[in-house]
Specification:
The complex is a heterotetramer, with two copies of chain A (304 residues) and two copies of chain B (316 residues). By secondary structure, chain A is an alpha/beta fold. Chain A is 38% helix and 12% strand. In chain B, the strands form three sheets. A seven-stranded mixed beta sheet of chain B has the order 3-2-4-5-7-6-12, with helices on both faces. Chain B has a five-stranded mixed beta sheet with strand order 9-11-10-13-14, with helices on both faces. Chain B has a two-stranded antiparallel sheet with strand order 1-8. The chains are: A alpha/beta (304), B alpha/beta (316). The interface between B and D is large, with 45 and 46 residues. Bound molecules: thiamine diphosphate (2 copies) and magnesium ion (2 copies).
């Protein structure tokens, strides 16, 4: 993972931000014990969730369910796994993260802000006129966003393109991509799945945010995607199944994915849509609706 | 004009009505039935409703298959995906074989609001208008939507209906007569013609009111059918007024403005100013903020009128 | 399969056409022994192949390889399996055939002509200006063509739509669809595959013309589709693997498909591209090139 | 004008050249490399060539990913699939993020010939022109193609290059100067302006020759860049001549004719006649038969000139 210039030092600073020491090349939880790291990442995921709820409350519209379900994965990527430089967002050697399910923008924005790409105060501009935090991620507006997304089904292809570029240039960066389980109903996902296997893109690690819900209800009822693991295996992928709301399992799966050569890896991450906010959990109504002020309060209490 | 209803709401209602009377009507959606308002149909006629999941291309071509067997499918999703994500399917499996498929796309234009540019279709009219044999309806209000959907059902061939998310003023009486392909003259005036479509029609009426204070009499045309275009009426008001402003919630490239420019140039060239999105992508914001930002207000229409009037006087 | 009004009587009439008795509802090889039927269908496939070669030679352009590989499947469908009325091509109860790989139009045209939809003499107008036999099938021009195709990847969706219509109306007709193996690289195929399983379209029988070649070479090299059976199984289909140039296997597979309820069936039909013409067999160069006069002669000799 | 070369052939050649000098150039194709002529590049630079199989949508979005990492992808397939099958990918993954992706689409227009209507793109210009930020090149011959591809490489952003299957006359000298966005005046005449693009440019020149026999002097503009349109030059020739004919191998809806109508109406309205496909799908036949059938010959341009001249005289 490259050179490490600085050890991580956890210095809680204000209500929801965890400060970190990051004077150079990268950010890594090097001197932590695994247990300590997991604890830290759990805390980060919670902080991200708090941001999500607050942002959406402030915005008055947006997608809480699919943002919350992915918070643990995104926390692990941005606070442990990815080799990135918030102060040099276009650093060519950086690892990439593509949020294919672009409607979960809040989880990405929260992670970027917490990681130091911009000030957390800017999170309150979500979805507002002239904000860099567009309703769906816009790479032209916000540094740290690797790809503009929002139209579902396109991010895996884009990730493949990035990974091909790495192969051509013999670069070591890895590409992570988060896909929704409703999203895999898009045929382009399977075009990209086939191509990633064909081109042996072992530098691609995909996560399926396997929360069982899409807008119109359960994926099972709307358009059944089962048996989902079999599909990815049949498309030539290394498949790992985990609980995607379990930080340790996410960490381990990513490590395992790195060891596989000649194949891309799909981490099927069973998650709970709305995870962390009791009244949102597993409720399709919270796919694309913002919480009201009282609801925000209630959620934040639960996320303490 | 007090009451405001989104055209997608009107669509949802009339869909249930025609579903009742015409058993061949089937509805397909791509995981957005609550937003596109096909949900009510899906509850009433579950055996004739097919949720295709997030798979717009498959939705359109499946509809084509249903149409070959005598069904009258209405397909709905957001306009940006309905047209762009399934364009080749619309082209080769619907338009080319002239199949009886209706595409009722909601969330057109920048009034989608906060979701931002990726979700704001500004090019759907351009796309569908370029396809031979398609009828393109862009209703201005809830009542026109009702009529457009019923008219679509009568047409044996592909129809695109462009609908909005935002609640917009009801400008028509319920007994108003909708004739497909015939532009509606809502105001008669000899100084300038404002030719509008969709939610810009009510703003065109506002603009006409403002202009009247300055003693400028504007003809206002409501072009609910972009294709086939009512060239005759458009040319006649151009002849009458000698100056035209078009207004649409769409890129000025490829939509109503282009269609009118084509008609004028071929039949009676007069100065034209096109109000619309000036060839940029949309962004997040409140619908009213965005209408203002993109120059889609009554004031923008008024200013455009003054511009064309200046050119007209020079021409004379 | 409905009522049978007339027995089949083989009366060879002219060089390449086999005449048949067909005074009413349908055409069926009812009183034939299986072996006799297979022999007859083999002969029909050969006749179709002869038409293909001659048509393409006459047209000067077109797609011989993928037309020849599918001739046996198409012969079985049009001369035994499908419940159709050439004199009433829009009969609502008819079985449907969708040629999703529309570039194989010649095999469809040959079958339609042989089956009596139009005179075989019209085959010589293929691809010519004002012909009903367009370069790719056009349902508006030629009765018997169930769907206009040519843009790959769309036919399975269309077949599903027809099958859904049958289900709504409680009609018994079945829908057959022929797909290329390169064609399944189109994501829309997998959207349709998922939907057919979701809606339990057991009245859909698809054939994969598994000839291993596409335009730019072997599917293996261009964009590998393996393991192909696993993919269809993972997408919820009943899968049957056969030699698609073996009439008897084609017949049996179709019968087996009819017995399956609650699932669509994919018959993976291993074929030889260019089958029947030695110099075309397994040669990607003959995907989209018409044979010259001498080549036509040579091919016809081989197809005696 | 004796030598005939298809623009796709010229594309294949220049691709190898730029691949030699610019190591960031990568090429993607969708199982049509021998038809699109990317095949030679694939042999020379196999490590920078990616055959994506029959999967146009994935091809475009993969190219977008490559572009984010500094590569300059050229994507090729037939125009009908390059634009229609991947429209949403072009829109949301290329145009919206303004990525440096080039789409060089071959087999545009009815001169595809025998393959028929499903393969003859008559709407690709309309589609891409409706997208903010896209540059659209429609080269008239082999030499212009060379220059357009080299120009595309210099532009940091999305570029669409429309190429043909048919061999067409070489009209330019090899030292001719291609300026993106600048229409080329090939003939100067004050009676009428013929504004053409793609293979219609050489037919416009033929038409001008025919007209000269009748002592009608035509300006001929070669609009190799449809977007951004050279409004200045177009308006100036409209002012000079007072009558315009456009000529394109594309639907008259949405392409060059619409673009010119927009420009004229907004700046200097004059009579216009649009030569192009009259809003119908193509069909099988020999390219010359089809050009004739669809009204795309020098004679058709000549007749259109007489029509606009009649209107012009009425106007004066
Ligand atoms: C191409 C496209 N079609 C439709 C939509 C509208 N849409 C947004 S989210 C969504 C459901 C996605 O479900 P899933 O992928 O399961 O997301 P999650 O449950 O993780 O929120 C849909 C249909 C879209 N954004 N893009
Ligand atoms: C959407 C689309 N993309 C590309 C093409 C061009 N094309 C025609 S045939 C073909 C190869 C198809 O290979 P396969 O499906 O294996 O057909 P077969 O071998 O049976 O001829 C391609 C790419 C097309 N017709 N449609
Ligand atoms: Mg989900
Ligand atoms: Mg094949």
């Amino acid at each position: 993972m490259g050179k490490v210039l600085s050890p991580y030092k956890a210095k809680p600073k204000h209500e929801i931000s965890v400060n970190y020491f990051n004077e150079g090349d990268e950010f890594i939880l090097l001197f932590m014990e695994k247990a300590e790291k997991v604890k830290f990442l759990k805390e980060k995921a919670k902080v991200i969730r708090r941001h999500i709820v607050k942002m959406l409350g402030e915005a008055g519209s947006g997608h809480p369910g699919g943002s919350l379900s992915a918070a643990d994965i995104v926390a692990v990527l941005y606070f442990d796994v990815m080799n990135i430089r918030p102060d040099d967002p276009h650093w060519p050697e950086r690892d990439r993260f593509v949020l294919s399910k672009g409607h979960a923008a809040p989880v990405l924005y929260a992670a970027l802000a917490e990681r130091g790409y911009f000030d957390v105060s800017e999170l309150s501009t979500l979805r507002k006129f002239k904000s860099r935090l567009q309703g769906h991620p816009d790479m032209k507006k916000l540094p740290g966003v690797e790809m503009s997304t929002g139209s579902l089904g396109q991010g895996l292809s884009v990730a493949n393109g990035m990974a091909l570029a790495a192969k051509i240039d013999n670069k070591k960066f890895r590409v992570y991509v988060l896909i929704g389980d409703g999203e895999i109903q898009e045929g382009q996902i399977w075009e990209a799945a086939m191509a990633a296997a064909h081109y042996k893109l072992d530098n691609v690690t995909a996560f399926l945010d396997y929360n069982g819900l899409q807008i119109d209800g359960c994926t099972k009822d709307v358009m059944c995607i089962e048996p989902v693991a079999d599909k990815w295996i049949a498309f030539g992928w290394n498949v790992i199944e985990i609980d995607g709301n379990d930080i340790e399992q996410v960490l381990n799966a990513i490590e395992d994915a790195k060891k596989v050569s000649g194949k891309p890896t799909m981490i099927i991450a069973k998650t709970i849509k709305g995870k962390g906010v009791s009244y949102m959990e597993n409720n399709p109504d919270w796919h694309g609706k913002a919480p009201k002020a009282e609801e925000v309060e209630k959620a934040l209490e639960e996320l303490l | 004009m007090d009451k405001k209803i989104a055209t997608r709401e009107a669509y949802g209602k009339v869909l249930v009505e025609i579903g009742e009377t015409n058993k061949d009507v089937v509805v397909l959606d791509a995981d957005l039935s609550k937003s596109t308002k096909t949900y009510e149909f899906s509850c009433k006629f579950p055996e004739r409703f097919f949720n295709m999941g997030v798979a717009e291309a498959n939705m359109i071509a499946t509809a084509a298959g249903l149409a070959t067997a005598g069904k009258v499918p209405f397909c709905s999703t957001f306009a940006v995906f309905a047209t762009g994500r399934a364009f080749d399917q619309i082209r080769n499996s619907v338009a080319y074989p002239k199949l009886n498929v209706k595409i009722a796309a909601t969330h057109a234009g920048v009034t989608v609001g906060e979701d931002g540019g990726s979700h704001q279709s500004i090019e759907d009219i351009a796309l569908i208008r370029a396809l031979p044999g398609f009828t393109v309806f862009v209703p201005a209000d809830a009542i026109e939507t009702r009529e457009a959907i019923k008219a679509a059902l009568e047409i044996n061939g592909p129809v695109y209906i462009r609908l909005g998310k935002l609640a917009v003023p009801v400008i028509h009486d319920s007994d108003f007569k909708f004739v497909p392909g015939k532009a509606l003259e809502l105001r008669d005036g000899s100084d300038v013609a404002i030719i509008a479509t969709g939610l810009m029609v009510s703003l065109a009426l506002e603009a006409a009111d403002i202009l009247l204070k300055d003693n400028i009499k504007a003809t206002v045309l409501d072009v609910h059918t972009i294709k086939p275009l009512d060239v005759e009426t458009i040319v006649s008001v151009a002849i009458k007024t000698g100056a035209v402003v078009t207004a649409e919630e769409h890129n000025v490239i490829g939509g109503l403005g282009s269609a009118v420019a084509e008609a004028l140039c071929e039949h009676n060239p007069v100065p034209l100013k096109r109000i619309g999105i000036q060839d940029v992508f949309g962004e997040s914001g409140k619908p009213v903020e965005l209408l203002k930002h993109f120059g889609l207000t009554a004031e923008d229409i008024v200013n455009a009128v003054y511009e064309v009037l200046k050119k007209k006087s020079k021409n004379m």
